[in-house]
Every structure is written in structure tokens, then in C-alpha cells.
Amino acid sequence: MALGPRLDLRQSQSLVMTPQLQQAIRLLALSNIEIEAFIGEELERNPLLELGGEDTGGDVASSGVDATFDAPAAPADGDPAGSDELIGAGMGEIDRPLDIDLGGEVFHHDCASDGPDRVAGEASGGLDGALSLNDISTGGGADSDGWEDSLEYDLTLREHLHAQAGMAMSGVTLFIGRHLIELIDENGYLRGDLLQVSHQLGVPLGEVETALAAIHTLEPTGVGARDLAECLALQAKEADRYDPCMARLIDNLELLARGALPQLKRLCRVDDEDLADMIAELRQYDPKPGSRFGGASVEAVVPDLFVLEREGKWMIEINSGTLPRLLVNRSYHVSLSGGRHDAKSKAWLSECLAEANWLLKALDQRQRTIIKVASEIVKQQEGFFRNGVTQLRPLTLRSVADAIEMHESTVSRVTSHKYLSCARGLFELKYFFTSAIQATDGGDAVSASAVKSHIKTLIDEEDAKNILSDDQLVDLLKERGFDIARRTVAKYREALGLGSSVQRRRQKKLQGAR
What we know:
Elements: H1 19-28, H2 32-45, E1 49-51, E2 59-60, H3 83-88, H4 116-122, H5 157-168, H6 171-181, H7 194-201, H8 205-215, H9 228-238, H10 244-251, H11 253-258, H12 261-268, H13 272-283, E3 305-310, E4 313-318, E5 326-328, H14 330-337, H15 343-380, H16 382-387, H17 397-404, H18 408-415, E6 419-422, E7 425-428, E8 436-437, E9 446-447, H19 448-460, H20 470-479, H21 486-495, H22 501-512
Parallel strand pairs: 3-6
Antiparallel strand pairs: 1-5, 2-5, 3-4, 6-7, 8-9
Helix pairs in contact: 1-15, 5-6, 6-8, 7-8, 9-10, 15-17, 17-18, 20-21
């Protein structure tokens, strides 16, 4: 067969993700706080988007599951009218693909706790009917006072020490002391070598030790210590309890940690009563004196969903208090399109309108998807919401995806970095997906979180004279209907922060010596 150049026509199919679809997928994985930041960026980029508050003739971002969308009116000849024709005819207000029947809508307040009459009136729907869904709106304007405004400023440990150093030191000692304060961590311990500080500052080592001794006199007592023993010794001196017996006890903290009380009695030369009194005194000291002061700012977790029970039915609502009310200002679009513009400007304006419409649709679809996934989680884990963690069922992403006829990756995106607030507390949506533990009687499997709860209960209720080993925990769990291996019990126990039987026996022994 001869080889030569030729032209062929071939037809093929391929699946391509459009930029709009990529944006919708990205929005689905964002939390409400991240969505708020994203909307802020879009407001700066797109002039047709604005925050709501008053009726500006724009389209509301998303009102809920029962929102209705009106199609634009078609011309008499039957051909659908595009936005350019409507705008040219001065009828830009007609092209409203996301209009909402405001007469048929009852909007919620900022959160599920507002408007109890409204919530009670919708309770009959529950999971069997239309679930309540807030609109993206509600008070997210620039003039509203957020929860950040009510936070008080926390004085940091270093600021507190610098303020005291200015009054307690002077001259070279103050200069060295301020340098040492910068080496103190958030727990109050000095993380630096004195000899190295001496070389860095070009001062004698004795001057550095004098400055450190001055820091030891500052509040809180024990700050500037280089280890736990020095920290406790400083507090014992402040309490006038640093006698030779206490000094030997502090020097041998590793024996105290191991529960070697007979050896400690010999070293300290005290009897049982005096040793118990010394241990009780040590327990009153603060091993982390700097932790009481503010450090890095702690960000509060804001729930993305509220779950409420009303008249035996579960209500699920989006926390719209963290989301601004987003509008498309079509009046502004009409005024801009009325002037004379070149083709490039018109194309840019049309692109802004299309992007704004798509963003509103994507936000609305995001809410509906989140509500759909959360509804199935509440339905599957109703025992948890009514009775607690012991009734938590094993649940997987695939089972939820199959129930709501969505892809497993979609459920994964919805449950990432999103939190649910209910009567039992604040939980990440991922919390409700746990592995299964087979029941001994062949019945339904139970979740790993429920087994962990039973392990914690058994250990909390154990007798100080009869500490339960992992083998005994396995037997007790089998009596409760859980078929679980010893290594799994050990893994769950360590995940709960509970020590082994030997460690717990030492702790009980030390508590009994108080």
C-alpha cells in the first residue's frame, strides 16, 4: 500500500469539563466561610454583581428548594428573544432567568434559631416532605456587625512580660531580658541556650543569668523555666514550700511518673502521709504557666448546616448568616448597554452577565445538593441524633451516593470542611461516616465510633483495684454484642488518649496517694 498525504474527516465523542462546570464543582467543596470570600472576589471582578439589602431590581442569588423560575416572554412570531433584542427594545428587565416568585416565598432569618414560628410551621414537612432551605441572603452587608466585633483582645504572654520587664529591670539587664522574653514559648518555657545568647549579645554569661533570674520573678510564677523541674521549683519557692524534701521530689519527677512511691519515700526521707501531701502540693502547680495567656488567634468553627427537631420531624437548614445576599443588577446592565460601545465592550458586558447568571445558578445548585446529602445523613443516622454516639451506624460515601443517586465524589466534596450543628453539638459531616464492626449475634453491624464510646465507658467505670486489660475489654465488649479483636481495642483505646492497663494503674495509684 502506497504511503501519501491525504485529508480525512473523523467523528468522535469526548467528555469535556466546561469552565462553568469546573466552577460549580469547586464551589461544592467550599465551606460557607470560603464561599463568602469567593463571592467577595467575584463582586470586585464583576460589576453586575452586588450585595443585596434593598430592592434594586436585581435577581436574588438563591431562595430555596421551592423557588420558581420564570422563563422570559417570547415574541409574537414564536422565535425566542435573546438578551440583546430585549435590551435593544428597552425591555432588559424581562430577561430574568433566575427570577423568584417573591409572593410565594417566605424568607428565613439569619439562622435556624430565628423565627421559631416559621420553623414550627414547616415542621410537618420533615424528611418526608420539602426540606427547609434558607436563601443565600441575610444580613451580610458591609454595615452589619459580625461576631468578630464582639471578640475581646487577649494579651499575649510576651506582651505581658515586656510590660513587667520595663518596670522591674533597667539598663543592660532590661536589654538582655527583652531578648530572653522573645525566646519564651507559649507555655512559658525558655527555648534558648544562655551561652549562645551571651555570644550573640556580646555580654558576659553572668549578666544573662542575672537577667533570667529577674524574669523568674515576673508573673506568672514559673515563667522562663528551662524544664518542668525548674518550673515547679520556682512555684514551690513562691509558695514557701521548697524544702530539701520537696527539692529531692522535684529532682526525681521520673520516679513519680512511674509511680515508684516506695523509692521516693526513701529518697525524700518522708513517710506516706508527708509524701502524699507533697504530691498533692505539686498537683496544684501549673506545669504550663504561659498557657493562660492568649497566643495565636483561634478561629471559631462556624456551622454550615442546622439540624432541628420539631414535632418529631427533622428540619435541615443552610446557615445563611455567613453568606451575603447576592444580586444581579440588570438595571445597571441595561443602562450600560444603552450607550455606544464597540464590539469588544459589548462582548465583555455580555460575558459579565452570563457569568453572573451562572454563579447564581451554581450557588443555588450547591445549596440544593448540600441539603440533599445532609438529609440522607440525618435519615441514616437518626439514632445518633436521638440517642447519642452509641447509636451511630456504619455509613459510607457510596451508600449515601446510591441513595440520592449521585456520584460518590460529589458526596465527598459536599462533606468536606463542612460542619453540622444539632442539639448534641457541632460535628463535621465526615464524622458520620465510620467503618463497621460485626455484631457477635449476627445482627446489624455497628460503627467504630460506637465501639469507642463503649470502650471509654468501660474504662471510666473500672475499679482502681481491678484495672481492665485489653483482653478483658475484648470479653466485656463481646458480652455487649461487639465482635472485635484485641489489637483493634488497643488501637481504639490509644485513639481515645487512654493509656494501657499499666499506665492507668499508676495513675490510679498516684490519685490514691493524694
